[in-house]
């Protein structure tokens, strides 16, 4: 059974009508909501924080995946855990004690995820595969919606997929599940490239919120990805 999940990134939604925007992607069949938190330091812009996540939580049953594009994400874990997020994505570039951070998230009952900038090699997370639930491969440089997919990231996704398989074989943990997410520039042309390389969670922002018919778009996006596996 092929398992492709669509995660709608709200960064490019109309924040003045956020509840409606969320309903729209929920009805369209997205399984997850991707919430980009930007601190004006790790990336230039500032977006939203825990109070907004709390309000979103009250309004949707979708899985809430929080992408912390922030400096020192450890400082804000508690607030986001309390906000009702389902998973927390920390950037490996900002975590000196990544193993400890991921355990902290899991001990709080949340899914632990780690994000990698395009220039960050997969070797940086090789030694936390035993604890991590999801790995987010940035397919654009973080900070803005609407950028173009970096095609060479397919090489990185394949490498990561191989690393995970190798980890499972060598530790005998064949049932260990690690999702591979891609974030940035995902549309009908790039989703097959990412899925074909091994990604199973597709984060889509401007393509989904800009679609004339989001129901039709999500269907097509999923179909294009499944066909490439
Ligand atoms: C980029 C963000 C993404 C972004 C994706 O820094 O992390 O989640 O919103 O938007 P699109 O799909 O438009 O590239
Ligand atoms: Zn993101």
- Write down the Rg: 16 Å
**Which strand order do you get reading across the main beta sheet?**
1-2-3-4-5-6-7-8
Indicate the structural class.
alpha/beta
- Measured between the Cα atoms of the first and last residue, the distance is 11 Å
- Reading the helices and strands in chain order gives EHEHEHEHEEHEHEHH
Query: Low-confidence stretches at least 5 residues in length (pLDDT < 50)?
Result: none
Give the helix proportion (percent range): 25-40%
Number of helices: 8
Give a quick account of the main beta sheet: strands, pairing sense, barrel closure: 8 strands, parallel, barrel
Overall mean pLDDT stands at 97
The best one-word shape is globular
Structural overview:
- This protein is of the alpha/beta class and 229 residues long.
- Helix content is 36%, strand content 19%.
- It contains eight helices and eight strands, in the order βαβαβαβαββαβαβαα.
- It has helices spanning 18-28, 50-59, 77-82, 98-107, 153-171, 191-197, 206-209, 214-228; strands at 5-9, 32-38, 63-69, 87-91, 111-116, 134-138, 179-183, 201-204.
- The protein has an eight-stranded parallel beta barrel with strand order 1-2-3-4-5-6-7-8, surrounded by five helices.
- Helix 1 links the parallel strand 1 (5-9) and strand 2 (32-38).
- Helix 5 (153-171) packs parallel to helix 6 (191-197) and helix 6 (191-197) runs parallel beside helix 8.
- It is globular.
- The chain starts with a strand and ends with a helix.
- The model has no long low-confidence stretch (mean pLDDT 97).
- The structure holds D-xylitol-5-phosphate and zinc ion (ZN).
- The site of D-xylitol-5-phosphate (DX5) has 22 residues, from strand 2, strand 8 and helix 7.
């Amino acid at each position: 059974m092929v398992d492709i999940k669509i995660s709608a990134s709200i960064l490019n939604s109309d924040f003045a009508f956020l509840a409606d925007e969320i309903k729209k992607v929920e009805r369209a069949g997205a399984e997850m909501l991707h919430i980009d938190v930007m601190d004006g330091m790790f990336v230039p812009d500032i977006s939203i924080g825990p109070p907004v996540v709390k309000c979103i939580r009250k309004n949707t049953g979708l899985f809430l995946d929080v992408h912390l594009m922030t400096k020192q994400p450890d400082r804000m874990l508690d607030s986001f855990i309390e906000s009702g997020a389902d998973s927390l994505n920390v950037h490996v570039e900002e975590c000196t004690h990544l193993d400890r951070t991921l355990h902290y998230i899991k001990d709080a009952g949340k899914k632990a995820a780690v994000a990698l900038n395009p220039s960050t090699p997969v070797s940086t997370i090789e030694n936390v595969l035993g604890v991590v639930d999801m790995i987010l491969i940035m397919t654009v440089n973080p900070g803005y919606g609407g950028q173009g997919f970096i095609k060479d990231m397919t090489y990185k996704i394949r490498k990561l997929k191989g690393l995970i398989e190798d980890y499972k074989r060598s530790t005998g943990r064949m049932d260990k599940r690690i999702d591979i997410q891609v974030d940035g520039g995902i549309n009908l042309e790039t989703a097959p490239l990412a899925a074909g390389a091994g990604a199973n969670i597709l984060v889509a922002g401007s393509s989904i919120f800009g679609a004339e018919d989001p129901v039709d778009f999500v269907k097509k996006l999923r179909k294009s990805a499944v066909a490439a596996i």
